[in-house]
Amino acid sequence: MSEPSPRQTATRRAVSARDAGLRRISSVTRWLAIGVVGLSGALALVAANAFHGHTVSNASAATPAASAPVTPSSGGLSPAAVTPTVTPSAPVVVSGGS
């Protein structure tokens, strides 16, 4: 068998270098993706433990408010002086700019 020509040797070296570079960048990309997912999970855990939600019980909040009378002097709302009435006119709707 004869030796490969210098051109074939150079081509093989270039292909080997390309393949090694692709393996290296693939490995770096894989580790970066794993790191980003892990860091996101860690930050989610930190945020979940740092910011606690507030639980409001509806039964305890509704009981005192329902039993307390509302008076104008206590800062609550007072009833309307005049009861609103319904008028039998059609609503006016303007559409477009002409």
Q: What layout of secondary structure does this protein have?
A:
Blueprint: H1 6-50, H2 58-67
How would you explain this protein's 3D organization?
By secondary structure, this protein is mainly alpha-helical. The protein has a domain at 1-52. It is 56% helix and 0% strand. The chain has two helices and no strands. The model has no long low-confidence stretch (mean pLDDT 80).
- In which range does the helix fraction lie? 55-70%
CA-based gyration radius: 38 Å
Helix-and-strand structural type: mainly alpha
Q: Report how far apart the termini are.
A: 91 Å
Largest beta-sheet details? none
Average pLDDT rating:
80
Beta fraction: under 5%
User: Globular, elongated, flat, extended or rod-shaped: what is the shape?
Assistant: elongated
- Uncertain spans: none
Task: Name the helix and strand elements from N-terminus to C-terminus, one letter apiece.
Answer: HH
Summed up, the helix count is 2
Number of beta-strand segments: 0
Could you name the key traits of this structure?
elongated, 98 residues, 2 helices, mainly alpha, 0% strand
Structure at a glance:
The protein has 98 residues and is mostly helical. Helices cover 56% and strands 0% of the residues.
